[in-house]
Amino acid sequence: MRFERVTAETLDTVLDIVNSNPAYNTMENDNPSRTLEEVKSEFLNEESESYFIIEGDKPIGLIDFLRNNPRDNCPWLGLLMIHGDYHASGYGREAYASFEETFIHQQFPKLRIGVFHDNVKALAFWKSFHFHQYGTSSWRGKGVDCLEKQLT
Length: 152
Prior knowledge:
Layout (H helix, E strand, L loop, with lengths): L1 E4 L5 H9 L2 H8 L6 H8 L5 E7 L2 E12 L4 E9 L8 H15 L4 E7 L3 H9 L3 E8 L2 E9 L2
Parallel strand pairs: 4-5
Antiparallel strand pairs: 1-2, 2-3, 3-4, 5-7, 6-7
Helix pairs in contact: 1-3
């Protein structure tokens, strides 16, 4: 498994992965699908870094993170998404474990994530990696559990 940077030329693949997750899209944006412009804005911006999760030669998911959130001066994982065709295959666990190793090597002391209150499966997933809740917030009017993991 490896990570490759998302580029303007690969946005159609990003859109395919994102739209293979209609339940998440509905939870996040009240719409089961996203447009090319929406994914361009989310995955090609100055604030975050976006990568494909590659298994063999196939992009199977996406990971997006902020090295430093200016609100709390902490790194944040904004999204870990596996293509709908590959759910429940262990790829999400493998991708996160690999990504966490990169963070540890880069000497990040901790990592934060936000999980929608309604995303029970994601909350259980992140807690299995020993993330703990330290607060709550909202994003676009939706409740978010704020989780954190000490890395060092």
